[in-house]
Amino acid sequence: MKRKMWGAAIIITVVVLCQGVPSRATDAAAEVVTVDRLATVGESVVLSCNNAAVNASPGVTEWSKDGKLVLRHNSTSTEKFVADSRLAIVNNSALQISNVSGSDEGVYLCNVMPSDIQEQNQHPIKLVLVSGPDAVSINITPAVVLLNGTYYTIQGSEVTYTCSSQSYPAQELSWVFEGLASKPLNVTSGNGTSLSFKKINIIPIDQGNYSCSARNPVSGKTVTSSIAMLVYYRPSRAPRCSSQTGINASDLLLLCSWTGGYPEPTLQWKHDDEETPGDWQPVLSASAANASLDVTMSRTQLHDGQVLKCVGEHPAVLSRMELPCSVKLKAPYPEGEPMITGISKQNVTLTCQDKDARPPPKITWLRGVRQEEIVPSSKYIISQGEAVSTLVITNCSKESDEGFYFCRSENPVGVRELEVHLSIKSSAYNVGGLIGVVLAIVIVGSGGIIGAVVYLNRERIFLGHRVWSEERNDVLMLVDSDDDAPFEDDVSGLTSLTNGNATPVVNDQHTTRDDHEEPQVHDEEPQEKDITDT
Q1: How many angstroms separate the CA atoms of 311 and 521, rounded?
Q2: How far apart, in whole angstroms, are the C-alpha atoms of residue 498 and residue 495?
Q3: CB of 277 within 8 A of CB of 287?
Q4: With the CA atoms of 449, 455, 459 and 464 taken in that order, what torsion angle do they form, in degrees rounded to the nearest 10?
Q5: 3-state SS class at 206
Q6: Which residues contact 313 (CB under 8 A, 6 or more apart)?
Q7: Cα–Cα distance, 332 to 361 (Å, whole number)
Q8: Both ends of the chain: CA-CA distance in Å?
Q9: DSSP-assigned letter for residue 512
Q10: Are 53 and 119 within 8 A, CB to CB?
Q11: Are 133 and 223 in contact (CB under 8 A)?
C-alpha cells in the first residue's frame, strides 16, 4: 500500500502470535507483545529482531515483509531480495529502513537461525503508517474574500462555515469563534473529514476570527486554520447632497454624505454633458472611499440649469447598485418693487427677494451711479432672511437719500441686479394724501348710503307711493298713463290730499250716472279747476 503523506507517523506494532489461547498461557503458548513507536515520514526506523536468543550470536538472520523474503544476513555478508538500498542490517540482526515512506507499511517478520538453538518463537512486527493532518481548509458561503484574505458577508445572510482535512486514523475537528470583544468560544466539534455549522440572519456582532482545528488522535498532531470574518451593512438612508457658495463668491462647493454603513461607501460627483444628454461625466475625477465627499467648482464650469449628482456605491447594496442624489443650479433673479416713495424725516424700507436661485445667493445693497456698497449702520439697517433682504433707510431726506439703489444677487452661477428708484416727498404730501383718502372714503360712503335708500324705497318712487312723511299736506301723487284700460278698476281707489284730508279722484270718462242723464255739451272749453285748496 502506497501513500504520499508528509508529517506522517509510524506505529510499530509487535505481535507475538499464539495458537488460539489467551495472551498469557502455561503450556505450549506464546506471548503477544505490542510495541508502539512513532516516526515521521523521511526519518529512519530500526526494527529490532526479538527472535534472537539471549547470549547467543545468530548465525543467519532473515527479514520478510508480508510473507516475502526481503533480506538475509550472516556474519560475513548480506543478501537482498528486493532492489531497495534503504534496507540494511544493524547490530547483527536489527532491520533499518531509511527515509520511511508510505510503501514501507506492512507486516515484518524476523527469523534467526543460530546453530545452537533448538527452538525459537515467531515475533511478527506490523508497521502502520499514521498520517495527517497536514492542513485544514476553510470554506464560507455566501462570502467574498478580500485581497488580504479577509472574508466578508452581508448582514441578514444565512452563512455556512465548513472546514475539512485528511488524517489517518480519523481526525477530531473543532470550530472556535473569537469576537472582537469576547473570549474564545467553542462553537461545535466532531470526527470525520469535515465539520460544518450555520449562522442564520448574521449580524455585525458575529464578525470576528473563526478557527478550525484538526487533531490526529493517535499521533496527537494538531493543525489549526483561522480566518477573519466581517459583516457589511448598508447605510440606513440614501445619500444626501447639497451645494453652497464657496469661500469665493464665484466658487461652488458641492457637499455629499452617506453615513451609517459599514464599511464606508465610495462617493463620486458627476455632471450631465451638455452636448450629450444622459452622459454623466466625473467632476474633476473626484472620488473617495469615505462617508463624505466635498468638491469645489469654478464659475467657468457652471451654467444655469445644470444638474450635478453624487453617486454612492456600497458593497452591501444589491448588485452594487448606484444610489444618487442631485442638485440643480439656477442663476440669480432678484425681485422687488422698482419704484418706492418715501416721506421726508421718516423711515423707508426697500425689499428684495430671490427665492429660486440655487445655491442660495448672497444679496448686497448698492446705491448711486457708482454703485457703492451700503454698509450696515444706524442710517442703513440691513436684514438678511431666507432668500429675502430688506434695507431700512432711517430719517429720510430728499437731498441725501433720493435716487437709485441696487439689489445685487450673486451665486456661483452668476450675478444679477434689481434697480430700485427711491423718491422722497415732503410731509405735506403725506397730509394731502391722507385728506384725499378721507374724502374718497366719505364720497364712496355717501353714495353707498343714497343708493341703499333708493333701493329700499324703489316701489314708492316708481309706483307713486309717498316717499315723504304724511305731515306734508300739499302733495298730490298722480299716475297718468295712455293705457287706461288696465287701471279702470284701480282709478276709483286713488285719493288726493287736500288740506291733509283724503279726497277721491274722479275719472269723468268712466263715471256713470245713476239717472242716465245725457252729458252736457259746452261750447267753450271747460276751465281747469284747481282741485287743491290753497
Answers
A1: 118
A2: 9
A3: no
A4: 50
A5: helix
A6: 265, 266, 320, 322, 323
A7: 7
A8: 165
A9: P
A10: no
A11: yes
Q: Are 174 and 213 in contact (CB under 8 A)?
A: yes
pLDDT at 138: 96
Find where cell 464560507 sits. 140
Neighbouring C-beta atoms of residue 364, cutoff 10 Å: 20
Measured distance CA(138)–CA(147) in Å, rounded: 16
> Which pLDDT score is estimated for 495?
42
Which tens digit of pLDDT belongs to each residue from 405-423? 999 999 999 999 999 999 9
Predicted confidence (pLDDT) per residue in 267-323, tens digit: 999 887 766 666 788 887 667 788 899 999 999 999 999 999 998 889 888 766 677
Please give the average per-residue pLDDT across 37-46, as a whole number.
77
Question: What's the whole-number mean pLDDT along residues 83-106?
Answer: 87
Is omega for the bond preceding 359 within 30 degrees of 0, making it cis? yes
Q: DSSP letter for 204, please.
A: G
Q: Which of 25-29, 93-97, 156-160, 207-211 has the weakest average pLDDT?
A: 25-29
Let me know: does 210 contact 138? Beta carbons within 8 Å.
Answer: yes
Q: Letter for the amino acid at 533?
A: D
d(CA 174, CA 213): 5
**pLDDT score recorded for residue 129:** 78
CB-CB contact of 70 with 80 (8 Å): yes
pLDDT value of position 467: 46
Grid cell in block for residue 432: 394731502
Nearest to 151 by CA among 200, 198, 214, 206: 206
Burial of 216 (0-12, 13-18, 19+ CB in 10 A): buried
The one-character DSSP state at 358 is: B
Q: How far is CA 7 from CA 45, 101, 131, 226, 379, in A?
A: 15, 11, 7, 20, 96
Please state the pTM of the whole predicted model: 0.59
- The residue that leads in pLDDT, 59 or 362, is 362
Q: In what order do the strands lie in the sheet with 307-313?
A: 280-289, 266-272, 307-313, 323-328
Burial state string for 415-451 with b = 16 or more CB within 10 A and e = fewer than 16 = ebbbebebebbeeeeeeeeeeeeeeeeeeeeeeeeee
Residue 193 has what DSSP assignment?
A: S
Contact 418, 336 (CB under 8 A): yes
Instruction: Please answer whether residues 291 and 265 qualify as being in contact, where contact means their C-beta atoms are separated by less than 8 angstroms.
Output: yes
DSSP state of 262: B
% of the chain residues with pLDDT over 70: 72
Question: Mean pLDDT over all residues of the chain?
Answer: 78
CA dist., res. 268 & res. 256, Å (int): 9
b/e code 497-533 from CB counts within 10 Å (16+ = b): beeeeeeeeeeeeeeeeeeeeeeeeeeeeeeeeeeee
